[in-house]
Amino acid sequence: MLDDVLTHLEALVSFDTRNPPRLIGTGGIFDYIRAQLPGFRVEVSDHGDGAVSLFAVRGNPRRVFNVHLDTVPSSEAWTADPHVMRRFDDRVVGLGVCDIKGAAAGLIAAANVTEGDAAFLFSSDEEANDPRCIAAFLGSDHGFSEAIIAEPTRCEAVLAHRGISSVLMKFKGEAGHASGANALTASALHQAMRWGGNALDLVEGEANARFGGLTGLRFNIGKVEGGIKANMIAPSAEVRFGFRPLPSQDIDALHLRFGSCATAGALDRYEETFRGPSLPAGDVASAEERRLLARDLADELGLPIGNAVDFWTEASLFSQAGLTALVYGPGDIAQAHTADEFVTLDQLQRYAGTITRLLQNNLSGTTTP
Q: What is the DSSP letter of 257?
């Protein structure tokens, strides 16, 4: 079966689905997948701006498997063409093999050697912070109660991960000569730096927060820009930062606290540019209840349960919509988004074998007619 997985993976890697630039159409990789799924009812949907999804159903399942086909851009550090898969003794190398076309190849291979009910949702906008494919699916009358989302988890079921929020802040100042005594307070850049110090103190104060093996609040100031030159007071400054809360931490409350780290009157704009809920989604009580339901699902399917993770996945969107959701896929997240990205043959074989077992043993989540 590994040979079948590698054949499909080689083909999937050959399609350029880098995101950005997000120039993904309804043909190409989607034509290939459609051709590999005889016996499935297939629907390809264009959600605009390179966000395309393929939904394939066989029988009457209640559980959907989701995998994204888009990849991050390749870098100059690649030692060979990233869209030509290379095979070595214990691994394959290629753009997206780990994150997460390897899972897509495994689903296709498993579907071709089984006849059980199955539902696959292939999406193409996960790397864009603009999840149109998942939003459209969850907004439809889909009828599913469980979801297994493929991301690199070393073939372990992940039941919990952090949320994510990205923010754009703009600070206002008063232009002037840097020799003036008012430079300390009039500079927008100085105000941004004061905010940064206060924000770092806020994050350090959350070090003891815990949920499901995760601790603390993850935080990063990604960009600070402003000013004109060293002897001029900066009239404006821009800061972009992000934080990753635990399922037990309220994102809206954290925004209020981060905003209050700025000196009164210094902020010109505070805008959340992207939000992804934690897994499980919900308040503290409901999140724990949903985590236990996901654990029961993993136990039912015979999936080994791994630790909670710090990275974000679209599983949280399924959870937020009320589905019991977990993350399960081949590969190690340490290889995602790297040059010469790889996934081991053992991981690919294990994943495809597991999916095959689930479909063969009628563990695909069949609804009662």
A: H
Question: For the segment 283-317, what is each residue's pLDDT rounded down to a tens digit?
Answer: 877 888 999 999 999 999 999 999 999 999 999 99
Give the CA angle between residues 59, 70, 5 to the nearest 5°: 55
Please count the residues of the chain: 369
How sure is the predictor about 369, in pLDDT bands with cuts at 50, 70 and 90?
very low
Q: Is 146 annotated in the active site? A: no
DSSP state of 39: T
**Which of 232, 251, 233 shows the shortest CA–CA distance to 243?**
251
Q: What is the pLDDT of residues 97-145, one digit of tens each?
A: 999 999 999 999 999 999 999 999 999 999 987 889 999 999 999 999 9
Angle between helices 345-360 and 102-112 (to 10 degrees): 40
Q: Of 126, 146, 151, 206, which is the active-site residue? A: 126
> Distance between CA atoms of 214 and 286, rounded to whole angstroms?
17
- DSSP 3-state percent helix, strand, coil across the chain (nearest 5): 30, 25, 40
Q: What angle do CA 44, 48, 49 make, to 5 degrees?
A: 125
- Written as one letter, the residue type at 139 is G
